[in-house]
Design goal:
Layout (H helix, E strand, L loop, with lengths): L19 H7 L7 E6 L2 E6 L13 E4 L2 E4 H9 L1
Antiparallel strand pairs: 1-2, 3-4
This protein binds zinc ion.
């Protein structure tokens, strides 16, 4: 692994700012979830892809009881 030259300080709450260049490269936007794990003594951050639990759609998602459901599925649930 090659150092990126983008060292960041950890603040008092353990937060680190992810460099904008890396966020753009990985398609990470404000509000996206990232999974944090440790592997071989290193932090690993992975973008969590968000999809409807019923149909797999990635748009117009709403959270219900900690699960994501799209607007279309919400509509079909309330119609039945
Ligand atoms: Zn759906």
């Amino acid at each position: 692994m090659v150092a990126s030259g983008m060292a960041r300080k950890v603040d008092g709450l353990g937060r680190v700012v992810l460099p904008v260049e890396m966020r753009k490269q990985l398609g990470i936007d404000v509000g996206d979830l990232v999974d944090i794990s440790v592997a071989d003594g290193r932090f690993v951050l992975e973008k969590v892809e968000q999809h409807c639990v019923f149909c797999g759609a990635a748009e117009e998602l709403r959270e219900h009881r900690a699960k994501l459901v799209c607007a279309a599925c919400v509509g079909s649930l309330s119609a039945s």
